[in-house]
Amino acid sequence: MPSITPTPTPVPIADTPFYESITPLKQKDQFSLAPVENSYISGNGPLYLDLAHSNMGSGWAYPGDTVGVSVKMYNDGPALDTTAHMTMGLQKYIYTDYGSFWSSDLVSEEIDTPLTVGEKTSFTRNFSYSVPNTTGLKGFYRITVKYYINGQFNCGFVKELNILDP
Q1: Is residue 61 part of a domain?
Q2: Does a structural domain hold residue 69?
Q3: Above 90 in pLDDT, residue 159?
Q4: Got the DSSP string for 50-116?
Q5: φ, ψ for residue 105 (rounded to 5)?
Q6: Which end of the chain is more exposed for a tag (fewer CB within 10 A), N or C?
Q7: In the predicted structure, residue 141 carries a pLDDT above the cut 80
Q8: How far is residue 20's CA from residue 108's CA, in Å, rounded to a whole number?
Q9: 97 contacts: CB under 8 Å, gap ≥ 6
Q10: Cα 95 from Cα 41, distance rounded (Å)
């Protein structure tokens, strides 16, 4: 598999406070942003996401910035005291003369994280994603995060983001 450099790299920061550090949008970039559409991926539960009460962070970033996401989650079943398996993938939107498509994962992470949550309760999970401080990253990206409990897909989300030139 060819190596793609440089690409943004995920920083798994589960169970930490929300953190985002974004450079204010520069005037030259005001009219060059692609619209972002963050979305929920439904699964088989008992965990569910509530995007309406989540903070999906900024829709843009510059090299050196850190994008944050704070996701409101619900346990719709009995209390859980287990290890959740989380996958995180980064794709770039590719434009060609023949059409447009999402790339395969440029970066792929798998993380096992402890999960202790009461019956029929809500909780928050926070994620941060650091954009390398380098040029040549400009483009439209999406981060796909999926949660698995006992090998079963429960829920996930897609975070879209414009990465701009410094």
Answers
A1: yes
A2: yes
A3: yes
A4: EEEEEE---SEE-TT-EEEEEEEEEE-SS-EEEEEEEEEEEEEEEEETTEEEEPSPSEEEEEEEEEE
A5: -60, 125
A6: N
A7: yes
A8: 21
A9: none
A10: 25
* Amino acid at the residue 37: E
Asked, as a colleague might, if the bond just before 6 is cis with ω within 30 of 0, I would say: yes
The count of structural domains within the chain is 1
Q: What is the DSSP string of 16-51?
A: S----B-PPPPGGGTT-PPPP--EEEE-SSSEEEEE
Provide the residue range defining the domain that includes 86: 37-163
Q: Is 8 part of any domain?
A: no
Alpha-carbon gap, residue 166 to 37, rounded angstroms = 23
Helix, strand, or coil (residue 163): strand
CATH of the domain at 79: 2.60.40.10
- Tell me the C-alpha distance between 108 and 89, whole Å: 4
Give the type of residue at 81: D
Helix (H, G, I), strand (E, B) or coil at 135: coil
Question: What average pLDDT is seen over the chain?
Answer: 87
Type of residue at 7: T
Residue 6 has pLDDT above 60, yes or no: no
CB 87 within 8 A of CB 14: no
Within-domain flag for 28: no
